[in-house]
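Design job #97: recover the sequence.
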């Protein structure tokens, strides 16, 4: 498949590119600063790079045209969490992304989320509640944007085959093993690796087991 990867210059996005290429997909990267990507990625013949902002309709439309799916690692920067801009800019970007996907007849969207986006299948978890409430208190604008991302995808993505891949605390380890479920189900935890996220997204792209669902993935 030909896949568009958003958030590609971040740590999880780079791993997403590598996983997609390893699975024999061709990759389109849309990024504000594609020069941040390693030279071997930028010069890989299987990778097409588009430069642009998330609110640039024309540039984003050009990147989406002709792809089979959109894989997104977009999310608030952990290091800038308390400084995240007001006005839910990422959710507004998703609104445009979804509009353009529908216009170009691209149905599959796999998007990064967190447990701040709740799901009817979630149950109470004290540990997760402490984490989410901490984010909501210390990084309010980032929390509000993530919640709005979930609402935007669910309300505007009726014509899409979307999956919101919710991740808890992220680790830089190389362990790709994950368990898939929901908050408080007795099997999910509070950590997952970025490598596990990238691996799960590319596998789900092929399996389509969690369409119109928002699973939580964590380390076993």
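Job complete. Output follows.
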């Amino acid at each position: 498949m030909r896949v568009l990867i958003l958030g590609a210059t971040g740590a999880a996005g780079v791993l997403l590119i590598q996983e997609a290429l390893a699975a024999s997909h061709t990759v389109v990267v849309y990024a504000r600063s594609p020069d941040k990507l390693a030279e071997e990625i930028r010069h890989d013949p299987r990778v097409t790079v588009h430069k642009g902002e998330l609110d640039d309709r024309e540039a984003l439309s050009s990147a989406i045209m002709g792809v089979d799916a959109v894989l997104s690692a977009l999310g608030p920067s952990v290091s800038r969490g308390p400084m995240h801009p007001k006005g839910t800019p990422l959710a507004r970007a998703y609104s445009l992304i979804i509009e353009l996907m529908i216009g170009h007849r691209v149905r599959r969207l796999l998007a990064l989320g967190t447990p701040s986006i709740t799901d009817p299948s979630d149950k109470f978890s004290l540990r997760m509640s402490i984490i989410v409430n901490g984010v909501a208190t210390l990084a309010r604008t980032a929390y509000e944007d993530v919640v709005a991302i979930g609402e935007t995808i669910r309300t505007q993505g009726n014509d899409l085959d979307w999956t919101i891949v919710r991740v808890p605390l992220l680790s830089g380890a190389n362990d790709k093993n994950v368990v898939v479920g929901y908050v408080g189900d007795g099997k999910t935890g509070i950590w997952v690796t970025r490598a596990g996220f990238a691996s799960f997204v590319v596998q789900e792209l092929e399996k389509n087991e969690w369409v119109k669902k928002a699973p939580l993935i964590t380390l076993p």
